[in-house]
Write a structure and sequence with these properties.
single chain, 155 residues, 9 helices
């Protein structure tokens, strides 16, 4: 959630928007806690059944949080779309349009997943996003994330 908030700050978004992105980033994977072994496994090693379970975690998270009065509809929408891509290859909705805030959280989520779960080096994760997943994420946002990672000393 810190990286998502720092990224939103670097884009000079409004404080309220930065706060919403931060909360969504912090809570985005709560639904995955129902299946810790699936969530902790590299995505490339998932069986078909595990992948099906994994792809439900945005819905599971929204369901778990939807009755919380301190969670706004915008935060729930950010959580719902954090695994989506502009190429329509994400989940759960296979969307091809995302708001800027949704794109930010989606991009940071993909990067974080590669680094933490798939255990890919910071530089290689960024390279994967730029080359192998071209079209999945907004190129301008990807370049700005790259600059932030340089500033943070991660690449």
């Amino acid at each position: 959630s810190t990286r998502a908030m720092k990224f939103a700050q670097s884009l000079e978004l409004k404080k309220e928007t930065i706060h919403e992105i931060g909360i969504a980033a912090l809570l985005r994977d709560i639904g995955a806690t129902k299946y810790p072994s699936v969530y902790a496994t590299k995505t490339e090693e998932h069986s078909a059944e595990e992948e099906k379970i994994y792809r439900q975690h945005p819905n599971d998270t929204v369901k778990a949080l939807s009755d919380r009065e301190f969670i706004s509809e915008k935060i729930l929408k950010l959580i719902q779309t954090h695994e989506e891509t502009l190429a329509g290859t994400g989940f759960p909705g296979k969307l091809t349009f995302l708001t800027q805030e949704e794109q930010i959280l989606s991009l940071v989520s993909a990067y974080d997943r590669m680094v933490t779960i798939d255990r890919i080096h910071y530089f290689e994760a960024l390279k994967t996003l730029k080359i192998e997943q071209v079209g999945h994420y907004n190129l301008e946002l990807l370049e700005k994330l790259s600059k932030l990672l340089v500033v943070e000393g991660l690449i």
